[in-house]
Amino acid sequence: MSSAVDADRVRREILDEGAGGRPYLLRDARVTGELRLDGAGIRRAVRFEGCRFDGPVTLEGASTLAFELVDCVLPGLRASTAHVGGRLDLRRSAVGETDGLGSAVDLVHADVAGGLRLDGAHLIAPGRTALEGGGLVTRGGVFCEDGFVAEGEVSFPGAELTGGLWMRGARITVGDRERFAFHGDALKASTVRLSHGFRADGRVRLRGVRAEDLVSFNDAELLGSGSSLMCVGMQVGALDLRFARRPAGSVNLRTAHASRLQDDPATWPLSLGLDGLTYDWLGETAATRREDLTDRLAWLGRQPVYAPQPYEQLASHYRRSGHEDEARRVLLVRERCRRATLGPAGRTWGWLLDGVVGYGYRPWLAGLWLALLTLIASLVFDAYTPVPNKPGEGAPFNPVVYTLDLLVPVGGLGMRGDWHWTEAGVQALAYGLVGVGWILTTAVVAGVTRTLSRG
Asked: Could you tell me if 335 and 362 are in contact, meaning their C-beta atoms sit under 8 angstroms apart?
């Protein structure tokens, strides 16, 4: 540093009304003491370049034009409720200290008309909050890129970032993977880019986020344990979950909505919360629909507990795309998964519905059962001689018609009441076919009704 300047002197120069609004610039200096500008009305742009501060810079409740601390070193910046008429710039600055108290940068309920630039900055607050932006309002973007590192939590709950939040390639370390590395509940932003090399060694929380455009985790590393990413109730234009590698913990997307959702099976977490998730478009995971369907069913299978809504949502997606066969397959798997949650009686009935008509989504199975039973029973009946109930009356015996008459309980073909058998085994077969016919018919009706009502 070329010189040492007292903080009180710097304050007087910044607030000098005789400066006529000319920008204030201090370069390559050591500022001794604490630069306190709390509540001040600063009528000029302020810029520090390559300066070192002995104490924190405080702007709490202040009103200023552009305020820039570029390539500087300082113990902290306190700017809660400040109004910055231009850009707040901390590019390539080191802010905070390992044994300090509170946040490295405090912007709680601050209002920044321009952008917030933290590109290349190093925020130091281990075990604490490195960047506290709760309720922050910016009209420009918030940029934490080009080597940005935070030792401590980055927090933007309830912030309104009109120009978006850009953290591509950012690194956040908190030392404990069960702690939050990024906290953004109820954040409103045009876009959120925690992507392209973004790395968080703690949990990322984005409950209730609203973003008109893209929220991206493309090529991101999420190392938080428990719930690596929580997006419950998120409402976004597009959501990109193509992580660099599988998150260390679960990803919770319950009750979220994305107009477009893109992901990659290779990086799906082991546990996914999907109940209530809705989307208008879902990116394909494979080259063919058959492979995509297999992947998507495996995707739904990563839910920790069964929930029907994700299956219905996926089926709806396939139907909107004109893929009715895939939609029916998804709904069939839904019923099979539901069966596992039922008691013994429910599981037994479920197995019957599945085997007979595929829960109504494979009604052709009933035709196969009918054809198979008709063939077997007709061969048996043809090998024996029936006894007419009224000799000399009625049509000649036909084993195929007789079998169908036994199997179809409604209407009838007028033959089952005309004949009986002297062989006990054959008569038992006839009675059995009547029972099977009722079971088959009941299963068909139940399956079709289920399909029409829950489709």
From this structure: no
- Does 333 have pLDDT greater than 80? yes
Q: Is the pLDDT of residue 359 over 50?
A: yes
Give one DSSP letter per residue of 201-256, joined into a string: SSEEE-TT-EEEEEEE-TT-EE--SSEEEE-TT-EEEEEEE--SS--SSEEE-TT-
Q: pLDDT tens digits for 47-101?
A: 999 999 999 999 999 999 999 999 999 999 999 999 999 999 999 999 999 888 8
CB atoms within 10 A of CB 307: 19
| Domain regions of the chain by residue span | 3-283, 284-341, 347-454
The DSSP H or E segment spanning 173 is strand 171-173
In which residue are the tokens 């401590």 written? 152
Q: At 160, phi and psi to the nearest 5? A: -125, 105
The model's pTM? 0.82
Place of tokens 């019923």: 335
| Contact predicate 175/127, CB 8 Å | yes
Cβ-based neighbour number of residue 455 at 10 Å? 14
For 381, other C-beta atoms within 10 Å of its C-beta total 23
pLDDT at 16: 93
User: Residue 29's beta-bridge partner residues?
Assistant: 3
User: What whole-number distance in Å separates Cα of residue 201 and Cα of residue 126?
Assistant: 13
201 vs 222: CA distance, rounded Å: 6
**Interval 279-296 mean pLDDT:** 92
Helix (H, G, I), strand (E, B) or coil at 369: helix
The amino acid present at 415, given as its one-letter code, is: M
Question: H helices of 358-398, where?
Answer: 364-383
Q: How many helices (H) and strands (E) does the chain have?
A: 8, 39
Alpha-carbon span 149 to 94, nearest angstrom:
10
Distance between CA atoms of residues 223 and 231, nearest Å: 16
Per the CB < 8 A criterion, the answer to whether 159 and 116 are in contact is no
Phi and psi at 124, nearest 5°, equal -120, 110
